[in-house]
Amino acid sequence: LEIIQSPEANGVITSAALRAVVDILGSVQEISEVHKVVGNVVEAVHLCRFEPTDANADELVLSRIVEVLSVTVTSENSPVLFDEVILAAFETCFRLSTIKRATALLVSAATRELSSIVAAAVKSRSRESNNSSIHLPAAHFRKRLRSKGNVTFEFERDKLKEERSCSSYPLRAMLLFASCLVDPAMKLSASLRMTGLQILNTALITKHQDEKGTSALWADSEIRDFLLRDISISVLRTLGLASEPSIVIAQAFSVVDNLLVVLGPYGLPLLETLLLRVFPSYVDGSSGNFPVTVQNREVGLEALACLMSQPGLLSRGFAAIDCDPVKEDAVGPLAEKLGKAVENSMTEHDRLIQSGPDAVDDADEIWNEIIAPGFLCADALLSLSGWLQERVTRNRSTEESTAYVKKMMESKRHKDESAKAAAAINKLGSKADGRRILDLLTEYKIFDDELMAVKGSDLERLIPPAAEYFRITPSLDKSVIGTVLGEPDEISRKFLQNYTNSFNFTDNDVTTALRIYLESFRLPGEAQKIDRIMHSFANRYMLQNESKTELKNADVAYVVAFAIVMLNTDQHNDSIKKKMSLEDFVRNNRGMNDTEDFSKEFLLEIFESINALEIKMSNESGVDELNEILWEKMLESAGYVSTGSNRDMTEARRFLPASSQAPDSELFDLFWAPIVSSARMVLAVGTNENEVQRAIEGFLSVARCSTSLLKTDKAIDECVAALSEACGLCSSPLYGAAVRFGVDVRAQLSFVALSGIVRNCGDGVREDGWSLFLSCATRLQCLGLLSSPAFDEMSGYGPELVDLASMPIAVSPLQPDWWPCRISALEKDNGSKPIGGKSALQ
Length: 842
Known about the structure:
Shape: globular
Low-confidence stretches: 642-654, 797-842
Number of strands: 4
Number of helices: 37
Strand order of the largest sheet: 1-2
Largest sheet: 2 strands, antiparallel
Strand content: under 5%
Mean pLDDT: 81
Structural class: mainly alpha
Radius of gyration: 33 Å
Helix content: 55-70%
């Protein structure tokens, strides 16, 4: 160990000493006080210094260091180590993985060992969760990473040596450090982000040694806080980087997927952000103002397919997000966006086929940006159809789940009614004012029955609930909200006062409070309107923070709020070439604190906050600009409330519902049309048997779900129409049809599926569907391709023609008189009689 730490030893000697340590530890069966021995070895390796000689010899020394750490820290027989030993090993491996001139082999080995150290920390059940007195704030690593200029992992080694504890502190430190590496706000390289993501993934997928299928991370309250805050927001920001290498984006999606598993029902804010901000940008092909690369778009849409294939997740997301009156719809708009992408893809594909690729100048661009992503969107939709069918056909609702779904859908109905009023308000645009808002809310019956009767001078009683409506309705145009708040009439002024009073700025600094306020509406452009709004904000802020801020009074708060708005414009408006410096900002606000100066720390905090992150409305910023304030609001709305200095989930009032309480019927209503469009496209242009079979299964799933849910809409008829079109029997003349149909396996499989649908789901087929099916069947019979026994089986009670996954749906006992089969035979076998009294010929 002395040789290992000696700076005078050359690489060859140091390498031999490291190898000797490995041999000694491997040959001794039992070591007394093994944790002390291992601690000394790790400490020596951590402080390893040697005289560089030959590049190959030096590389061998570094590889030996990784080998020693593998034997001592991460092997199956490793003892329980003190906190400082684990962190020293982690710091050593991280230092090796970031050596600039290291070979790819060394970097790979060091990175793997980093993940192994994290996995070992997760597995160790003997480590106490809270017996370390060292607090680990989120700013710990962020501040050091920014100030050092180079990326280093540092921890409180001296304090840990004094404690000599075996706690979960190392795991918390490593996870927090990894989240800092991942966060784009730290402006680190893509390779470091990749390292951080690999560390996080390892921690999330590692289970306890003595338990199956459980994660060690959720049991520790502080680690849970990291998962929900620092780690979630860092990974989401990474997903918003449009030009990031695709391997990093793929790893980030893997982390998100594992986070959803570990967080379980409390992953609602993460799922909401994915559905509202992340996946729509990959479907559209743009993140914020930047286009998503073709490779990253492919990765994102494959990740969407993976998420949509998780049974029940979208149903529960619909219940918790789309049915919540204060949340913006996520699942419904995503279904609509996917459906449009599939339809656009099919349209452009048909155009290219008809015109010929050579006749279209931008054929490659159309394929990469429209057609190929459309196929991936179709794949995501077809991933949903499989588990949805299984849940619908097998799910047995309990009285409790039925009551829950009924209550949830009542909330959805009220939300839709509220959205109609919001749409009418949005049409007012710049003409909106307080009086017109009250009239529209009364017209759409938003107020309760008592307030609906209010007229004349009592209209002021409507202002508080109207202001609350403005605060909680997500579908309102934020420009209209700003217009109303800035109007000079008396009702609008009181509207502004009530709206501002609905905010809680307690214990927030003035910049944070102003962010929260201005992210809820668009500030109007007129100076007088801005003046009224800023005065209202200043009065509210000082009322709640008078004793907690260095601002002297509300007038000073008004001046500072105006200064922050001007600074925000200056720092983030591209048309302003000469930006304001910190010195300029300090000089401009000299003597503004009621004739006194603000402290430099106060102004520095404001300047750095605005310079780092622009104040934007929440629905304008991309996911890469997701800020902590908006994320905190989402956590609070999900029920993650503060209890003292810790956070607690026991008070959660809103989370993902249980799987049995998911509204599968409503989800089917949203997705059946996009699924049919996807199956139609894949069936038409699929290039192999698997794709054709997947498309046909999509049609069958929609038909079976519609039948099981007793839907009488046109879902089954759309399936019948698509399959009859794929048969090609009705769209071309009979001459030559026998040959065309006989060599087209796709057409044959389509007719088999079509026959299965009309047999098993006949009660849901409507007039147009029967017409199409009978046209195909009679044409086959005219061509001599449908034998008499086959025709009888197809239309009677014969064996199943398609695989129903061991869950056959009973054929309808009702036989209408126009059913194409031998009625007398059915009457003889079943005793059922024709319905309607007319013959098939009539």
